[in-house]
């Protein structure tokens, strides 16, 4: 079984090409593979297949809005084995993998996700790195809520980018005090407001067109970046300035991406790096079972 390993601003993924949809991605298999001691280690897993093949195999009940049977589909799993609707950094790595492997020859194509179609533009592939823009679709405002992080309560904006986020902009945080925040424990959030869990972003206000952000991801823990989270962060930071549109550079522990919001829709531009490829032991994988 072949794999690749890649990351987008150090949000890292195991990429599993499975064009005939033969793999049974049980919770145990995904979580063991993503574990940094028992497996390869990653924040998430990206299965590569066509949308129609996933539907035929029963992985998808229906094709999400705007996704055709022949479109590529990013079947995304969090490190704990749970399924999530979307992954912004994952789509960049997924698109890069398709171009680098020769599975896709065009620079512009659609990547399907459970949140719907996510068209991509691969601007450049140079060796192990690529520069990719993802059309992230609509950014929906869910209203205000709070999260408590290490005993401090932050107020934020609930935002749906296909998956749920609570983006908390703090006027008093600097890049340095943000970096010092203890994010080892999961933030406490309103479970009635976010019935399916939430990804929590803490960020500074906009300064010189940029914010600094950290994130605690649903199904993973603190990661060094979250693409959908950067879109939510940009939307909340613009809102804090009474703006609904604009371009925001979002600095995360793993690097920097650019989010542009126009007309209630967002694009995300940033890097992808493919660091390794190899094979997973079939006997080990089979023994993990269901
Ligand atoms: N890292 C991702 C988001 C992955 C899904 C998230 N943990 C969730 O459960 O919604 C990104 O880059 O967007």
TrEMBL record:
Keywords of the record: Amino-acid biosynthesis, Cytoplasm, Isomerase, Lysine biosynthesis
PROSITE patterns, sorted: DAP_EPIMERASE
Reactions accelerated catalytically: (2S,6S)-2,6-diaminopimelate = meso-2,6-diaminopimelate
KW Isomerase (keyword) present: yes
Subunit structure: Homodimer.
Similarity remark: Belongs to the diaminopimelate epimerase family.
Protein name: Diaminopimelate epimerase
Source organism per UniProt: Rhodococcus olei
């Amino acid at each position: 079984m072949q794999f690749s390993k890649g990351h987008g601003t150090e949000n890292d993924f195991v990429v599993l090409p499975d064009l005939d949809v033969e793999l049974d991605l049980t919770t145990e298999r995904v979580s063991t593979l993503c574990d940094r001691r028992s497996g390869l280690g990653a924040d998430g897993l990206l299965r590569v297949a066509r949308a129609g093949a996933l539907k035929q195999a029963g992985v998808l009940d229906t094709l999400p809005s705007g996704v055709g049977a022949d479109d590529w589909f990013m079947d995304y799993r969090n490190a704990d084995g749970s399924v999530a609707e979307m992954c912004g950094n994952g789509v960049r790595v997924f698109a890069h993998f398709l171009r680098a492997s020769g599975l896709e020859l065009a620079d512009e194509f659609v990547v399907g996700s459970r949140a719907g179609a996510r068209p991509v533009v691969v601007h450049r592939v140079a060796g192990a790195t690529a520069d990719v823009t993802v059309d992230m679709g609509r950014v929906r405002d869910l209203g205000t809520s709070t999260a408590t992080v290490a005993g401090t309560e932050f107020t934020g904006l609930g935002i749906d980018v296909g998956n749920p986020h609570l983006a908390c902009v703090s006027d008093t945080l600097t890049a340095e005090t943000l970096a010092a925040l203890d994010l080892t424990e999961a933030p406490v959030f309103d479970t009635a407001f976010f019935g399916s869990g939430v990804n929590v972003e803490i960020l500074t206000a906009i300064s010189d067109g940029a914010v600094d952000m950290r994130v605690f991801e649903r199904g993973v823990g603190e990661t060094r970046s979250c693409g959908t989270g950067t879109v939510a962060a940009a939307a909340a930071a613009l809102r804090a300035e009474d703006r609904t549109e604009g371009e925001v550079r979002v600095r995360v522990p793993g690097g920097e991406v650019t989010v542009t919001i126009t007309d209630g829709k967002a694009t995300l531009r940033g890097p992808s790096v493919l660091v390794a490829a190899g094979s997973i032991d079939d006997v080990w994988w089979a023994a993990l079972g269901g």
